[in-house]
């Protein structure tokens, strides 16, 4: 069997901010993503403080937590899979094999 490449779930560049905001709110709310690392100014993933960056972090948190339990990287088309680690600086995007 081929080794699966590592995959992260991030916001799709084509998705408008209002759709990203709705998906972000769901992911951090009833979706169960861990959004603590981006919600306060002193947290490592607060910057860059854009809806797209925050959505990417939330989407990935949700995806890594639930991908083996039926969760997908879709968010009504707002998200996409990437094989490039989106971590930057002190902001670490988790990856669960």
UniProtKB/TrEMBL annotation:
Entry-linked InterPro entries: X8 (IPR012946), X8_dom_prot (IPR044788)
Localization in the cell: Cell membrane
Keyword tRNA processing: no
Ranges of residues in domain X8: 7-93
SMART domains (alphabetical): X8
Membrane topology reported for the UniProt record: Lipid-anchor; GPI-anchor
Keywords noted in UniProt: Glycoprotein, GPI-anchor, Lipoprotein, Membrane, Signal
Broad class of where this protein is predominantly found: membrane
Short name of any one Pfam family annotated for the protein: X8
Name recorded for this polypeptide: Glucan endo-1,3-beta-glucosidase 1-like
Gene source species: Camelina sativa (False flax)
